[in-house]
Amino acid sequence: MKLSGILLIAYKLLTNDRGKFFSLLVGITFAVFLMVQMTSIFSGILHRSSATVTNIGASVWVMDPAVNTVANTIPVPDYLLDAVRSMEGVSYAVPLYSGGALVKLQSGAYQAVSVIGLDDTSLFGRPVLAQGNIQDIYAENGFVVVQDAEYHKLENPEIGTEFEINDHRGVIVGIAKVSAGGLFGVPTLYTTYSRAIQYIPSTRFTTSYLLVELKDAAALPSIKREVERLGYVALTKDEFIQKISNFYKYQTGIGTNIMLMTIMSFIVGLAVSGQTFYTFILENLDKFGALKAIGAKGRELIYMILFQATFTALAGYGIGVGLCTVLITLAKLRLPSYASLITFTNLGLAFGMVVLIAGISSYIGIRKVLRIEPFDIFRG
Q1: Residue 91 in contact with residue 215, Cβ under 8 Å?
Q2: Are strands 128-132 and 60-63 parallel, antiparallel or unpaired?
Q3: What is the pLDDT of residues 99-151, one digit of tens each?
Q4: Which string of DSSP letters, residue by residue, matches 362-379?
Q5: Contacts of 174 (CB under 8 A, 6+ apart)
Q6: Is the pLDDT of residue 84 over 80?
């Protein structure tokens, strides 16, 4: 019997009972939907947790070894900047201030903000402005506000809007756009480094990070060793992002909770699809027995079951991913701060689990079908 004919029979057997076929699809679709949704939320959280690193864009970050996230700043001494600048292979190094403050708005309300202080000379790491001129940041009391999901918490300021920060006057001189919004639900303000340390109370040391650009990437290992000898650590942009991700994965409850939800989704999908597929095989045993009686070989029956399980799994996978994509898109339209991001890793993980579900379901069906004898079918 031709393979195409075998697969056509398998398809018709699968879709003949629409109720059972729909039940199979629902089980796998629901499992895929939950798996992609949970892992996408986690990916969104990790992406936003590294927003400052992404937006600043420095190649190398020098920091205290105890820093776990970009928000967990530990000031480094002033001499470290001179030491890094003197290292061979360093093109330039600039200080960065990162801290929190409380802003008093024109309405009298108070709002927590994140303040980024850029190097006064170079403004390295400055955001792209949608409105205003970046040179105005040097004006008296000048600040640039980021127009992201938290922008409205500052009462939608415009250029020229005034506010108070630690009894100092602040003026919005620019409105910026950034590639990644923050995770912690607070607006972001940019200003110069000198103004940030003047307006915001700080410890003896005021530099949160050193931003370094290299003359040659080959010099990175030696720079890392020299920085380590000074008691600090130099990380590339990707290494710093990975360190932040590892912190949220393994040192907080976020990673564990998401992992448990993903495993539960897999178990639900496996239980529903496996039970439904087994019932489907039982109800069609007479048909498989008849095919065996007219000469269908065991491997051809295996092809049929594998096709049925694979077809159902892929259809459910596609529908589940589509539903999840639509839901995330609608949620982001209504809730700009919604942190969810579908990545190839998420899709690959869900696909691998769907393949595993299809494999286990196929194994259950194959064992049952290969044991049937045509004599038993016709005798019944």
Answers
A1: yes
A2: unpaired
A3: 989 999 999 999 999 999 999 999 999 999 999 999 999 988 999 999 988 88
A4: HHHHHHHHHH--HHHHHH
A5: 129, 131, 132, 133, 134, 136, 137, 144, 145, 159
A6: yes
